[in-house]
Design brief:
By secondary structure, the protein is an alpha+beta fold. It is 24% helix and 39% strand.
């Protein structure tokens, strides 16, 4: 069917319909804007006021601080070493035989020269008797020969031979007496019996260890110290010892001797510290040694945990005007939880001890209540 041409009468109707649609769209837009305004949406808040959080910067980082203050601080060298007895000895028998009596046991204190084992000496007694008889016989012969020599009835050569024989017999007698004395095995040093390897009735071999004695009256610990410390560590300086086996107990000693020779291979020298024994300390215990060689009475110190651990030069964050400022330090002595500051801070500066990892130079900080007053009290002690 052929399309009918548009007539002038249809145009006013279409224009009216388009106008109605436009008015409807404008009304919907105004309604949406009004609803958003009523709920406080958009850039403005309720009542047309600006949101106070809209232009606020980054939040302050909460931190704990300590105040740099003055206190006494010591310079020390720390090391570890095992305790050793001042002296120890293995007891051996100088002869062989059956052990008749064992007169000492493990843990018993013995004195130098005290008899520990008694060995059968019947054979040695007979040998001494034979040597004694030989000496008496030769003495009589020598006296007669001397008288006959005065009468020119014995040659001088015969007299000399008898004198030599007599001297040899006397030496044999002394040997027999010494062999008899070896029947009593004695302690070479005073100390405590550490081991016993003999029982009554056992056959004792010559030069075989049967006891071990340790002198626990004084204990020693040897440190291999780097050569840079050779000028500051001297004999007589006080030493403190902490033993792993006895937690919470501190033992005082002193440097007994210092080796003047530096080992070329390791670059260290030996420092031997001495401690009183006879109590809780025992040989073989592992200890931690602290040697204090200098002390400053009024040093500027901060807690060790304030130092930054970023691998660079020693530094801390200092709170100034509500912001964190990085300060590079020159450190001095190191004493347990405290470190001495030679430059970079002044007394009264607040350094960050907790919350450092979230800070950058210039970061805003918020000091937690009570954090600033707890640490300075320690620094003032």
């Amino acid at each position: 069917m052929p399309k009918m041409p548009t007539t002038t009468a249809d145009r006013p109707g279409r224009t009216l319909q388009f106008a109605r649609l436009s008015l409807l769209a404008i009304a919907l837009g105004l309604a949406t804007f009004g609803l958003a305004a009523c709920k406080g949406g958009g850039a403005n808040g309720p009542g047309g006021k600006l949101d106070p959080k809209a232009d606020k910067g980054p939040e302050a980082v909460p931190v704990e601080v300590a105040t740099a203050g003055q206190r006494s601080i010591s310079a020390s060298y720390n090391g570890t070493a095992a305790l050793e007895a001042r002296a120890d000895a293995q007891v051996v028998s100088k002869t062989s035989g059956i052990a008749l009596k064992v007169l000492a046991d493990v843990g018993q204190h013995v004195s130098a020269g005290q008899t520990l084992v008694s060995i059968d000496r019947d054979r040695a007694v007979l040998q001494q008797a034979q040597a004694d008889a030989q000496v008496r016989k030769l003495e009589a012969n020598y006296r007669r020969a001397t008288q006959l020599a005065e009468q020119k009835m014995v040659s001088a050569n015969d007299v000399d031979q008898l004198r030599f024989d007599l001297d040899n017999a006397r030496a044999q007698l002394r040997m027999a007496k010494l062999e008899l004395a070896y029947g009593n095995v004695t302690a070479p040093i005073s100390g405590v019996v550490a081991t016993r390897d003999i029982k009554p009735g056992n056959f004792v071999q010559i030069n075989t260890p049967i006891f071990t004695i340790v002198d626990t009256s004084r204990l020693e610990a040897t440190l291999n110290v780097p050569e840079r410390e050779i000028e500051v560590l001297k004999a007589g300086q006080p030493v403190q010892l902490l033993v792993d086996a006895l937690p919470g107990k501190t033992f005082d000693g002193k440097i007994d001797r210092v080796s003047p020779v530096v080992d070329a291979g390791s670059g260290t020298f030996r420092v031997i510290s001495a401690f009183d024994g006879g109590g809780l300390l025992q040989p073989g215990m592992f200890g931690r040694i602290k040697i204090r060689y200098d002390q400053r009475a009024d040093a500027l110190v901060i807690p060790r945990n304030a130092l930054l651990e970023d691998g660079n030069a020693p530094a801390v964050f200092v709170v100034r005007g509500g912001k964190a400022a990085r300060a590079t330090l020159k450190l001095g002595y190191d004493d347990g939880p405290w470190v001495e500051v030679r430059s970079g801070l002044k007394a009264g500066d607040q350094v960050v001890v907790a919350g450092k990892s979230a800070l950058r130079d210039g970061s805003a900080v918020k000091v937690l209540d009570g954090a600033a007053s707890a640490q300075p009290a320690k620094a003032a002690q």
